[in-house]
Design a protein that fits this description.
- The chain has 19 helices and ten strands.
- The chain is mostly helical.
- Strand 9 and strand 10 form a beta hairpin.
- Helix 15 packs parallel to helix 16.
- Keywords: Cell outer membrane, Membrane, Signal.
- Belongs to the SusD family.
Length: 566
């Protein structure tokens, strides 16, 4: 069974707002568009539905713009988080360009403006559920699992707050009421980054001890497991040790990653890199959002497909990313001995490139992508102009050619969104182990070194990149780890946070957003001319953290501290 993402009960519960704080009306009329508080607090089936609904809900850019539909994580969107980085640009803007151009402000955040409010709403909802859980009639074992689940979800929300804003307000188990003194300064005191991460990690330790190892029986697919809690802990401890956070140490990050590896439950998927993102329930997946028929999410194929096929060219990969893919011999294209041919730039590249990016000449739906001019069907000379890629590329990762590109509604968009997978854990381990011990030291309790962990990823079936050789320097290994995260995790919402935690965003995010103009000669050869796909990219030191929305500052009576220089 899968955790369903669309039922009338869930949708009604999703519409609840302020359920514990509503005052009795004069007519004592029970609203018909929401579930009564009494039902949640007395009916175990309704309560269970309420809990599972903490995983789901609205998109990042909810129509109300106030975070009133909190959702869980982001998952697929028309404009993906990649289009706030040097991975892609969103072809149709959608407020992403202002962040790319360094124009974000407390009152000008685009879709990112809902993160603060929706995260705290979800934390409050988890606190409410935890407060009534002891009163419900269900087995002690099931109560324990639900407690672990709610603490995992709450920690996930704190992760989103910490990695976007740095210092957060820790509210513990409090469920605020409208009758509370909302001008109490203690309600808005932001904890240090270390305090925030330590709190979330402690919650995850507790959650991991309560959650099952597997999704089986009544514990449906899509619900958190022990591996999910430990994977989130691995990510947070890695962040904590990183230069931007400076709130932890690398050995703790090694230990946290090793805890996931030692479960002996996960591995590298053998069905191919591209297929991994189209397939539910692989051995590599630790925690994912599943979608079911008639509950489909953003229709990725039409949203991102080439204009020659009627697609909208949404998140178009940048030349910045394309140039970073190695040759299949493991050498950078800038290496004179790599064999790179500028007249045939897409040949003999790391196989993850073709599984991630559609380029001129890519096989696609029984044809080739023709992004050249003059006359290419997927160029500005194609059937439409507004939906032509500005970079010369289209997105391949996540796209399923079996789904219709035209009129897809109700028939497309069932790919899973993977929050955590085993390759990320290996990358976490490799980065931390290299920083703590060097490339080839095997930490106590492990069978891997930083180098051998990376080689497990590079040798995945269908990729088979040359292994990293023994004897690398620590600096060279750092470069290798960052390369692997760049290409292995592309478009999975890691790049935005990686370049910030490494404190290299002032380099990567200040480079022009590159693209290419491809001109076809009469003899069938091509000329590739670099271009700037989006002008004015700008990153300033204050952009390492997002500003807290102005509305949140004002609502606190200006008691909530804003991030510096906003």
């Amino acid at each position: 069974m899968k955790l369903q993402y669309k039922t009338p009960l869930y949708l009604m519960i999703c519409g609840m707002m302020g359920f514990t704080a509503c005052k009795k009306s004069l007519l004592d009329v029970q609203p018909t568009d929401r579930i009564a508080t009494s039902a949640i607090e007395s009916d175990t089936a309704v309560f269970e539905a309420y809990v599972t609904n903490r995983y789901i809900g609205a998109k990042l850019q909810d129509k109300e713009g106030d975070g009133s539909n909190p959702g869980f994580g982001r998952g697929f969107e028309y404009s993906m988080w990649s289009s706030l980085t040097d991975e892609s640009i969103y072809n149709n803007d959608d407020a992403t360009w202002l962040i790319q151009r360094g124009q974000l402000a407390p009152e000008n955040l685009g879709g990112a403006g809902v993160l603060w409010g929706r995260s705290y709403r979800s934390i409050r909802e988890c606190n409410y559920a935890l407060s009534i859980l002891p009163k419900l009639t269900m087995s002690a074992g099931h109560k324990t699992r639900i407690e672990g689940e709610l603490k995992f979800i709450r920690a996930f929300r704190y992760q989103d707050l910490i990695r976007n804003y740095g210092k957060v307000v820790l509210i513990g188990d409090k469920v605020s009421q409208l009758t509370d003194n909302l001008q109490d300064p203690s309600l808005f005191k932001r904890a240090s980054i270390k305090e925030g991460i330590d709190y979330a990690v402690a919650q995850l330790d507790d959650a991991a001890s309560k959650l099952p190892l597997n999704n089986d029986g009544s514990w449906l697919l899509g619900r958190a497991t022990k591996g999910a809690a430990l994977a989130l802990k691995s990510r947070l401890t890695l962040y904590a040790a990183s230069p931007l956070y400076a709130a932890g140490d690398w050995t703790a990050a090694v230990t946290a990653a090793q805890a996931v590896i030692s479960l002996n439950k996960y591995g590298i998927y053998a069905g191919g890199y591209g297929n991994l993102f189209l397939t539910n329930e692989t051995n590599e997946t630790i925690f994912e959002r599943l979608y079911t028929k008639n509950a489909n999410h953003t229709h990725l194929e039409i949203a991102n497909g080439p204009n020659g096929y009627g697609g909208w060219a949404g998140n178009t990969p940048l030349q910045n990313l394309v140039d970073d893919y190695e040759m299949d011999n493991g050498k950078a294209i800038t290496d004179p001995t790599s064999g790179y041919d500028a007249t045939k730039p897409y040949e003999h590249r790391d196989p993850r490139f073709a599984a991630t990016v559609l380029y001129n000449g890519s096989l696609y739906r029984g044809q080739t992508v023709d992004s050249y001019i003059p006359g290419g069907k997927d160029s500005k000379d194609g059937p439409d102009n507004w939906n032509t890629t500005k970079t010369g590329y289209y997105l391949k990762k996540y796209m399923n050619d079996a789904y219709p590109l035209q009129n897809p509604w109700g028939n497309a968009g069932f790919q899973p969104w993977i929050y955590f997978r085993y390759a990320e854990i290996l990358l976490n381990f490799a980065e931390a182990a290299n920083e703590a011990y060097g490339p080839d030291v095997v930490p106590s309790g492990s069978s891997l070194s930083a180098r051998t962990a990376i080689n497990l990823i590079r040798s995945r079936p269908g990729v088979n990149m040359p292994p990293l050789a023994a004897g690398m320097s620590k600096t060279d290994m750092t470069t290798a780890v960052r390369y692997e995260r760049r290409v292995e995790l592309a478009f999975e919402e890691h790049r935005f946070y990686d370049v910030r935690r490494w404190k290299i965003a002032e380099v990567t995010e200040n480079k022009p957003a590159g693209g290419v103009i491809i001109t076809k000669n009469a003899n069938g050869t091509f000329i590739y001319t670099p271009k700037v796909a989006l002008d004015g990219r700008l990153f300033k030191p204050q952009h390492y953290w997002l500003p807290i929305p102005r509305s949140e500052i004002l609502a606190s009576g200006k008691l909530l501290e804003q991030n510096p220089f906003y």
